[in-house]
Amino acid sequence: MAFSIVTLVAAVSKVGLDNTVLRFIGANQGELEGSILNSLIKKCTILSLVCSLTVTSVLFLCSDFIAVNLFNKPKLGPVLQFVAPAIVAITFSSLIAMILQGMKRVISSVFILNIASNLLLVMCLFTFSLADAKSTAIAFSLVSVVTLIIALILLKKSSDKGTGVIEWATLLQSCLPLWLVVTMSQLVLWGGQIIAGIWEEGAIVAQLAIAQRVAMLTSFVLIAINMVVAPRFAAMYKANKMEELKNLALFSVKIMTIVSLPIVIIMLLFPHFIMSIFGEGFDDGAVYLQILAIGQFINVVTGSVGYLLSMSGHEKDLRNTTLFSGVLVITLCLVLTPILGALGAAIATSVAVASQNLIAVFWVKKRLGFNTLRFW
C-alpha cells in the first residue's frame, strides 16, 4: 500500500520533466544535445528538487494522520514514514534515466529505471532476512538512494561543457501539461488500489495489488520498445519524416501484439495458478488478474500513443486525455468499490486504462494522420 502511494507521489514530484527531457534531448540528438544538456539538467534539478522535497516532507510529517484518518490502517503510518525519503531519490533517478534514454543510452536508462533498485532490494531481502513492512520500507529508501548514486555516475560520464541555454518559459510550456499527464496516468494505474484501501481490509488490497503487478507484465514489451522508439519519434517529427514515423509506430505495435498476446492468454486461462504462486489465499484474487490483464492488453495493442503525442509537441491533447481518464477512474472507483469491493476497483482501473489509450489513438489519428490500431 505504501509503495503504491509513494509511486504516485514520486510521479507528481517529477513535474512532467521526465517526458520533457526525453523530447528535447531526443529531438536534438546529434545537433544541440551538447549545447542544451547542462542547462536542461540544472533547471530540471531546481524544479524537481523543490517539488520532491515538499511532498516528501508532507508525507513524512503527516504519515500517521493519512494512515488513520484516510485509510483507517494505523500500521500503515510508520511504513509510510520510512518509505517517504525514497521519493526524492526516485524522482531524480527517473529524470536521469530519461536523459540517458534521450541520448540513446538505452541500456543505462533501463538499468536505472527498472533493474537497479529491484535487484538491490531483492538482495537486501535475502541477505538481511527482512520480515516486516517497516524494515523493508527502510531498505527500499536506502536502495533508492544507492540507485540515484549509480545514476549520477552514469550521467557524469555523458556530461559535456555545452553553454547553450534552454529558457524557463520553453521548459515550463512543455512540462506543465505533461505534469498533469503523468499524475493522471499514475492515478489511473494506482488510484483503484489506493481507493480500495479505504474500504477493504489489508488482505484483499494485497490480492488486488499482486494482480495488478502481474497484469502489468503484459505491457513490459511496451515499456521496452518505448525506451528505443520515443527519442526516434521526437527526431523524426522534428525532421518532418512523417512516413518513417508512421512505419516505425505501426511496426512497433505489431511486435508488441505478437509478444504480449500469449502472456495475456495464459493470464486469462490460468489466473488461479499464477496468483497462488504468491502464497496462500492470493488465488482468491484470480478474477482481478483477468480483468486487469484485459485492460493492459488494450494498452499494448494501441501502441506508443502517449509518446507519439508528447514527442510531437501535442502535450495538451495527451493532457486532456489523461485528465478524462483520471476523473473516470476516481468516479468509477467511488461508485463501484463500495458496492463490489476490490472487484469494482479492478473494473474501474481496467476501463480507465483502456479508455485512456483508445482516446489517445483518436488524437494520434487526428494530429499525425494514422491509426495505430490498423497495424496490419
Determine the strand fraction and express it as a percent band. under 5%
Q: Low-confidence runs (pLDDT<50, min 5 residues)? A: 30-34
Radius of gyration: 20 Å
Distance between the termini: 40 Å
Largest sheet: none
Q: Please give the count of helices.
A: 17
User: Which word captures the global form?
Assistant: globular
DSSP, total strands:
0
Order of H and E elements: HHHHHHHHHHHHHHHHH
What is the percent of helical residues?
over 70%
Which structural class is indicated by helix and strand composition?
Answer: mainly alpha
Mean pLDDT metric: 87
Keywords for this structure?
mainly alpha
Could you give a quick summary of the protein structure above?
With 376 residues, this protein is an all-alpha fold.
Overview of the structural elements:
The chain is an all-alpha fold and 376 residues long. The radius of gyration is 20 Å and the shape is globular. Mean pLDDT is 87; it is low at 30-34. It is built from 17 helices and no strands. It has helices at 2-13, 17-27, 33-61, 63-70, 76-83, 86-102, 106-127, 133-156, 168-199, 202-215, 220-238, 242-269, 271-276, 286-301, 305-311, 315-340, 342-368. α1 (2-13) packs parallel to α5, α7 (106-127) packs antiparallel against α8 (133-156) and α14 (286-301) packs parallel to α17 (342-368).
List the helices and strands and how they pair.
Blueprint: H1 2-13, H2 17-27, H3 33-61, H4 63-70, H5 76-83, H6 86-102, H7 106-127, H8 133-156, H9 168-199, H10 202-215, H11 220-238, H12 242-269, H13 271-276, H14 286-301, H15 305-311, H16 315-340, H17 342-368
Helix pairs in contact: 1-3, 1-5, 1-6, 1-9, 2-3, 2-6, 2-9, 2-11, 3-6, 4-5, 5-8, 6-7, 6-8, 7-8, 9-10, 9-16, 9-17, 10-14, 10-17, 11-12, 11-15, 12-14, 14-17, 15-17, 16-17
